Amino acid sequence: MPFDWRQYLNLAGFLQGHIGGPVDVEAALRSAVSRAYYAAFCHARNYARDNQGFVPTGSPRDHVLVRTHFSGRNEYQLAAWLDMLRQWRNGCDYDDTVQNLPQMAGTAVGRAQDVLNQLP
User: Fold this and answer.
1) d(C-alpha 43, C-alpha 77), whole Å
2) Rounded Cα gap, residues 17 and 84, in angstroms
3) Where are the domains positioned within the chain?
4) Quick one: which H or E segment has residue 76?
5) Number of DSSP helices (H) and strands (E) in the chain, helices first
6) Spatial distance between the Cα atoms of 12 and 85, rounded to a whole number of angstroms
7) N or C: which end of the chain has fewer CB within 10 A?
8) Quick one: pLDDT at residue 51?
9) What pLDDT score was predicted for residue 16?
10) What pLDDT shows up at residue 19?
């Protein structure tokens, strides 16, 4: 049975909301942003593939192609949310310092939920 990418959003929400104990706060929030992005991206990619004729390449290029696909269908808000989430994910995964991380994590979880709600 294929993985339900929406489960990453559940994990992101958990990480964003249950901080403390043995888990470093910054690590949890960075991970929440990253998981929120992958929940939205993979769900959107699979939705586009299964319902709109999108053909994934299976390469990193799909991150751009999925956004381009939705922009080409005049779903600009969806493409913008995916791009914002990707940028935040990149920052959380690669940058030594991330500003406003608690706010970013909360917004990332909310925007990823918006993507999932738009693509049932």
Assistant:
1) 16
2) 21
3) 6-118
4) helix 76-94
5) 5, 0
6) 13
7) N
8) 97
9) 82
10) 67
Q: Is 20 left (phi over 0), alpha (psi -120 to 50) or beta?
A: left
**CA 9, CA 68: separation in Å to the nearest integer?**
23
Q: Do residues 4 and 11 make contact, with C-beta atoms less than 8 angstroms apart?
A: no
> Which two tokens mark 90?
């990149």
CA separation for the pair 51, 47 (Å, rounded): 6
Burial of 8 (0-12, 13-18, 19+ CB in 10 A): buried
Q: What is the maximum span of the chain, computed from C-alpha positions, in angstroms? A: 45
Record: fold of 6-118: Four Helix Bundle (Hemerythrin (Met), subunit A) (1.20.120)
**Could you tell me which residues come within 8 angstroms of residue 56 by beta carbon, excluding any fewer than 6 positions away?**
45, 49, 62, 65, 66
Helix (H) or strand (E) holding 87: helix 76-94
- Detail the DSSP E strand segments found in 3-107: none
